[in-house]
Amino acid sequence: MRIAQIAPLYEAVPPRLYGGTERVVAHLTDALVAEGHEVTLFASGDAETRAELVASRKQALRLDPAPLKSDLASHLSLLHEVRRRANEFDVLHFHIDMLHFPLFESIAQRTLTTLHGRLDIADLSDTYRRWRQYPLVSISNAQRLPLLDANWYATVQHGMNATHYRFTPAVRDGYLAFLGRISPEKRPDRAITIARRSGIPVRIAAKVDQVDRDYFEREIRPLLHSSLVEYVGEIGDDQKSEFLGNARALLFPVDWPEPFGLVMIEAMACGTPVIAWRCGSVPEVVDDGVTGFIVDNLAQAIEAVKMAGHLPRDRIRAEFERRFTAEAMAQRYAQLYWQLAGHRRAESLQVTAA
């Protein structure tokens, strides 16, 4: 099948440091190529991919040192090229929210749109109601809740290339890990509180976006002076296996409707249990008592820290391999691509018969 993957331009594919959507697109694209599909990736020029790359700008936006740049202009150029070449593909798979909707209405039946973010945002319901012809994919069932009447086609959980993450079979002592982004909804303050109350060090590997800079300086930096807290900063893929694999547990103390939580399956790939708050997708990702613990408060989280070492790390890795590999994700998406193609053929035959 001839497939176009259309990625956002904010990060490289895969990201050099922090990044979720572009990392998923990278692993999905390579897995589809390995399955024998003809895949073209529309992304920034610093992408590393097994597919044919079509670059609309040289470098991803976030790490581009240019002082002024337009994400809107960049994405419009990307969409212009996708539209120009649209007839070359059996399916166009978009990962850029709804930005393409006005431009691809006439061929919406040849598109699939995966939504990667939160959906409890004003104006979204009107937008997805206006353009109901686009088939949508959610990354968890919980993600759908604010937009239950949208044109949902399927739920496909994320997957990662298993060879990118090194399994660590045993950890002596270890630390608690927090990986991702410093922001109020990610609750790094909870992670620090858990470390202090349990007496186990926590290492925080996270980026700070400009929008969260005040929160970091006001709420988090004063908490970093504890001897139990180490702020590592933002890390890349080449550091994740060591960081996550040597941890006693990953802390995922979120306080928002998490759409998926990629870091949870990255930890599982290393054999590391996850201690996560019962928010959003968490109950769909974490198998409570097997790959980690789902908690509702600090007391439960501290108790889970004590129990984390009793979970067999090889079982955690096995569950990752069963549920969250890039191959499993690619096979599920390939099924959807063929279904779309089958529906189009059936509709064409009905029109011909009429």
UniProtKB/TrEMBL annotation:
<dbReference type="InterPro" id="IPR001296">
    <property type="entry name" value="Glyco_trans_1"/>
</dbReference>
<protein>
    <submittedName>
        <fullName>Glycosyltransferase family 4 protein</fullName>
    </submittedName>
</protein>
<dbReference type="Pfam" id="PF13439">
    <property type="entry name" value="Glyco_transf_4"/>
</dbReference>
<feature type="domain" description="Glycosyl transferase family 1">
    <location>
        <begin position="173"/>
        <end position="298"/>
    </location>
</feature>
<dbReference type="Pfam" id="PF00534">
    <property type="entry name" value="Glycos_transf_1"/>
</dbReference>
<feature type="domain" description="Glycosyltransferase subfamily 4-like N-terminal">
    <location>
        <begin position="18"/>
        <end position="131"/>
    </location>
</feature>
<dbReference type="InterPro" id="IPR028098">
    <property type="entry name" value="Glyco_trans_4-like_N"/>
</dbReference>
